[in-house]
């Protein structure tokens, strides 16, 4: 799933998700797929992924959600996609900073 997303393989990613690929697996950087897509502003792929994620506010080891990292990286369309998917703009990370702080 990570490889398909990194290479922009939307069809492949969709097939993997259809067949039950685990969206919570972390890559070697400790990021789940939703975090990686948010960090890199891959909104089109993120729109597909959020339909298969049970919790858009899943946290990384620093308590950061996809919304935190999208805000930190200035990806406005990704931020909007996550907000449209009910991401919590007031959820603090381990340092107490919310996505709103980074926006």
From TrEMBL:
Gene3D superfamilies: Ankyrin repeat-containing domain. It comes from Heterocephalus glaber (Naked mole rat). PROSITE patterns: ANK_REP_REGION, ANK_REPEAT. Keywords: ANK repeat, Repeat. Coiled coil: none annotated. This is E3 ubiquitin-protein ligase HACE1. It comes from the Eukaryota. ANK repeats lie at residues 1-28, 29-61, 62-94. InterPro entries: Ankyrin_rpt, Ankyrin_rpt-contain_sf. Transmembrane segments: none annotated.
């Amino acid at each position: 799933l990570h490889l398909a997303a990194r290479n922009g393989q939307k069809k492949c990613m969709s097939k993997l998700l259809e067949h039950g690929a685990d969206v919570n697996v972390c890559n070697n950087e400790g990021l789940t797929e939703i975090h990686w897509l948010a960090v890199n502003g891959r909104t089109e792929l993120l729109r597909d992924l959020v339909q298969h994620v049970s919790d858009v506010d899943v946290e990384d080891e620093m308590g950061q959600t996809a919304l935190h990292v999208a805000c930190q990286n200035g990806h406005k369309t990704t931020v909007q996609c996550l907000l449209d998917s009910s991401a919590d703009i007031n959820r603090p990370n381990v340092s107490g900073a919310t996505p709103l702080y980074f926006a």
